[in-house]
Design a protein that fits this description.
heterodimer, A: alpha+beta, 4 domains, 30% helix, elongated, B: Rna Polymerase Sigma Factor, Chain: A, Arc Repressor Mutant, subunit A, 2 domains, 9 helices, Ferrdict_sens_TM (chain A), FecR_C (chain A), membrane (chain A)
Chain lengths: 308, 196
């Protein structure tokens, strides 16, 4: 009995699973198994152990060198791929020139053309500009002085494109304003104005203006326009022709980076007015209010305009 | 296995090897290799194959060292690797023998193997034979329990079965062994009166 209890203390077999009267037999069986390990004779000599360790070290060393070679090549390939991909992504990503309200900007393109951007305009073009084409995308207003090159120069707006070789012209396209109008005035040379996705186009000659809008998807017949008025913004001036006050105020806000609040009952009033040498928003607003019999109040960079 | 000391030792090794400590790996290697060789031999029945299996398992352990779970028993984990490699070895050398049938194949080598074992007493050979005749999983479970000293929890990790199943395997194995053993002893008594 004493012996059995001793065995039980190191007993890992589930004695409690057996009926009580057989537990002693099972304990005895467990004890009898002591020398019944078929692998009992398997001994590892010191020499074998040393050799085994050496083998494993060699195996690990070779695995790790191939692993690190592999990973070096992988990393190198990944790095090259990443560089190429980044390069391509960079080249495909458009260059974006964004003019804040209250400022204008003149940029020089790689083909030596010059683009004057009006306040709040956005111009974008490819890093590959002038490699096999000269396309720019415009939201806003810009005056282009385009130098001749083997590739035509193309200005794309939301609904039109203007294609030129060498020339000077103005493009105006303010999305969501004036029925999405793209209007083009030509100073010098010759341009082709085409409605996007159509063959509807007109050729403009110097001093002429044409436009496309949602309601006029084909370019309207070019008509002569006073260059001072068509290019008023270039001379710090404004030229409005029968234009809603709401869109005029938007333009003033852009040009001078101010905030104009007005009573809704005046937003559909129209005005035809030419304002030259305007240096501040207040100068323009003062003139407009005087002409329309309106009152304005100024607080910092905010204006409130209403009818008395 | 068992004592708190060895458990702590293995836990430390697990931490160190995880951190690519080669010295700890060497210590572990020298500590467990002879046991693992014996363990692998129970499957392969060839010493060279057993060496091969254990060495590859140790290389494997080093390769996956960063994935060692410090919460899990490193020793069980190592036995688990060796067992799976040993089973693969048997499968590959026996041409797609399902694991459950391995027992059958083992019987062929048994007589040859048994004759090599220089045990003084008959009944050890008999007991060995009875154990070898057990179905594969029952045999594995009872060997791990009796000869390697693992508890049911550890055996369940090594064999990748639930502790409940481990228990069932061991209980069933013991019942079978007891029947055969009783019968054998009874016959032996009948033939040899001098034995008590």
């Amino acid at each position: 009995m004493k012996k059995n209890r001793e065995i039980s203390s190191t007993f890992r077999c589930p004695l409690e699973e057996f009926e009580e009267e057989t537990r002693e037999d099972i304990s005895q069986l467990w004890a009898d198994m002591e020398n019944a390990d078929i692998a009992h004779h398997v001994q590892c000599t010191d020499t074998e152990l040393a050799k085994a360790y050496k083998n494993v070290k060699v195996e690990i060393a070779s695995e790790e060198s191939t692993a690190s070679q592999f990973s070096f090549i992988t990393y190198a390939a990944a790095a090259v791929f990443l560089m190429v991909a980044t390069g391509i992504a960079y080249l495909l990503m458009p260059v974006k020139v964004q003019v804040p309200a209250g400022e204008t900007k003149t940029i020089q393109m790689s083909d030596n053309s010059t683009i004057h951007l009006n306040s709040g305009s956005v111009l974008s073009y490819s890093h590959l500009f002038n490699w096999w084409s000269r396309n720019v995308r415009l939201k806003g207003e810009a005056f282009f002085e385009i130098k001749s090159s083997e590739h035509p120069f193309r200005v794309v707006t939301g609904n039109a494109s203007v294609e030129v070789l060498g020339t000077k012209f103005n493009v105006r396209y303010w999305p969501n304003e004036k029925d999405n109008m793209t209007s083009v005035f030509l100073s010098e040379g010759k341009v082709l104005l085409q409605a996007t996705g159509t063959n509807n186009s007109v050729t403009l000659h110097p001093g002429k203006q044409s436009w496309i809008s949602n309601n006029h998807p084909s370019p309207v017949a070019p008509r002569p326009v006073d260059p001072t008025k068509a290019l008023a913004w270039q001379q710090d001036s404004f030229a409005f022709e029968n234009q809603h006050l709401s869109s005029i105020f938007k333009e003033i806000q852009r040009r001078f980076d101010v905030k104009i609040n007005y009573h809704p009952n005046i937003s559909n009033d129209k005005i035809t007015i030419y304002l030259s040498d305007i240096e501040t928003a207040e100068m323009a607003i003062k003139d407009i209010c005087r002409a329309k019999g309106l009152i304005y109040k100024k607080k910092n960079d905010s204006f409130l305009i209403y009818r008395n | 296995m068992g004592s708190k000391n060895t458990d702590q030792k293995f836990q430390d090794w697990a931490q160190q090897i995880r951190a690519s400590d080669e010295e700890a790996f060497s210590e572990l290697f020298h500590e467990v290799y002879p046991q693992l060789l014996k363990f692998a031999w129970r499957y392969t029945k060839k010493k060279s194959a057993a060496h091969d299996v254990v060495q590859k398992s140790m290389v494997k352990l080093w390769e996956i060292r960063t994935n060692i779970d410090p919460q899990q028993s490193l020793k069980s984990y190592l036995y688990q690797i060796v067992r799976s490699r040993a089973l693969n070895h048997i499968r590959d050398t026996n041409n797609h023998t399902p694991i459950e049938n391995i027992n059958h194949n083992r019987l062929k080598v048994e007589s040859k193997t048994l004759s090599k074992i220089a045990e003084p007493e008959d009944y050890n050979k008999k007991m060995i034979k009875f154990i070898e005749q057990l179905p594969g999983r029952q045999r594995e479970a009872i060997q791990l329990s009796r000869f390697e000293g693992f508890d049911h929890e550890e055996i369940s990790e090594i064999m990748d079965i639930s502790p409940r199943t481990v228990n069932n395997h061991i209980v069933t194995a013991l019942k079978t062994l007891r029947k055969k053993w009783d019968l054998y002893k009874k016959n032996k008594k009948g033939s040899r009166y001098e034995e008590e």
